[in-house]
Amino acid sequence: MRGYQFSKFIPRQLPKGGFDELLKLFLELLNYTSGDAGEALAWMNELDKQYQLTTDEYGMGDFIEDLKKQGYIDDDGNSGEIRITAKTEQSIRQSALEEIFGKLKKSGKGQHNTSKSGHGEEKNADRREYQFGDSADQIDMTTSIHNAQINHGIGDFHLTERDLEVEEKDFKTLTSTVLMIDISHSMILYGEDRITPAKKVAMALAELIHTKYPKDTLDIVVFGNDAWPITLKDLPYLQVGPYHTNTYAGLELATDILRRRKTHNKQIFMITDGKPTCLKENGRYYKNSMGLDRKVINKTLNMAAQCKRLKIPITTFMIARDPYLQQFVRTFTEVNGGRAFYSSLKGLGEYIFEDYIRNRRKTVR
Fold it and tell me: How many Å is the maximal CA-CA distance in the chain?
């Protein structure tokens, strides 16, 4: 046996120097402090003591002052509490997008070109004869008039259907997505922070859709004992609560949202690390964390089947390796006809981005 070989551990160097390097670290820490600027700056002070992040020419006090001057933080005049601004919230989303989408591009994934032509917005170089059902905005009038002059002469000019020439457009699909995030207590148990990667993925996906696919829609639903929608602005401040996992409520709310969308393509992405353990019936909670409760599981599976009937596939990103939980996810996925990934936290963002872009190329009719 060759055995193990050990080498000297060299810790990763933290950013050191000016404002831009410190800002990257500040934005990253805000993900872990749920948007608490004061706590993030306190952590930076401690890191500065241990790793000398700043220099004699540019200290933490200078950095905090620059954050205020450039509009990243402000303080409440009454309480003195430091808060992040809308500019910082935008920067956190952009940072998450660059981190996750940058890895995706380096891996060679994420291409979403299609060889099909059809209804869309971006014209391409292809031309063809007019066919019944083509929209008027596809007709190339200049070329069509030119065809009429050639076919019928200038003296007796008239335009017929055969003279019309149509510009092809690149096929595009519009997609409505609901991202479901589990905020039950298990998302921070066992010494592993699972909620922060989930938040970063949500912010990056929202930023991708806003900048690259502005006509797509993304709604975000969180679920614990209950389920409720949150806005993009709420994401940096999202925290785990002392909740059980009411997956049924999350799916029910996500389905209601998608019913109101007019797009053909609809999908649900669900990030969770546990099994359904909770239902709400007649104003009271039915809870059972011991194993897989048949009552809870059956109602959740019925909801998965209902989504299938509505042509809403569910892609589950399971952040857990327990065999009995994976078996539940396999059954859930089979009932819905969706997909499942048993993902580590490290690759979660790349999985979701690749699957989102792949699903945009499908047309559900």
Answer: 93
Cα 21 from Cα 1, distance rounded (Å): 45
Kindly report the CA angle at 88 between 32 and 41, in degrees rounded to 5?
Answer: 50
Highest mean pLDDT among 25-39, 66-80, 112-126: 25-39
Burial of residue 4, with CB atoms counted within 10 A of its CB: 0-12 exposed, 13-18 middle, 19 or more buried: exposed
Residue 180 CB-density burial (10 A; 0-12 exposed, 13-18 middle, 19+ buried): buried
User: In terms of pTM, does the model score above 0.90?
Assistant: no
Top pLDDT among 9 and 255 is at: 255
CA distance 74 to 82: 6
- The sign of the CA dihedral 279, 329, 232, 99 is positive
8 A C-beta contact, residue 360 and residue 213: yes
Closest CA to 229 of 208, 186, 193, 258: 258
Looking only at the bridges linking them, the beta strands covering 73-75 and 82-84 are antiparallel
**Interatomic CA distance for residues 242 and 95, integer angstroms:** 29
Helices (H) and strands (E) in the chain, counts: 10, 12
For 211-238, letters b (16+ CB in 10 Å) and e give eebeebbbbbbbbbbebeebebeebbeb
Question: In the structure encoding, which two tokens stand for residue 144, read together?
Answer: 């069509």
Which band of pLDDT confidence, cut at 50, 70 and 90, is reported for residue 110? very low
Quickly list H helices, 54-140: 60-69, 86-106
C-alpha angle with apex 297: 293 to 298, nearest 5 degrees? 120
The more confident residue out of 11 and 197 is: 197
- What is the model's pLDDT at position 112? 37
Cβ(278)–Cβ(244) below 8 Å: yes
Position 27 scores a pLDDT of 94
Measured between alpha carbons, how far is 309 from 297 in angstroms, rounded to an integer?
A: 19
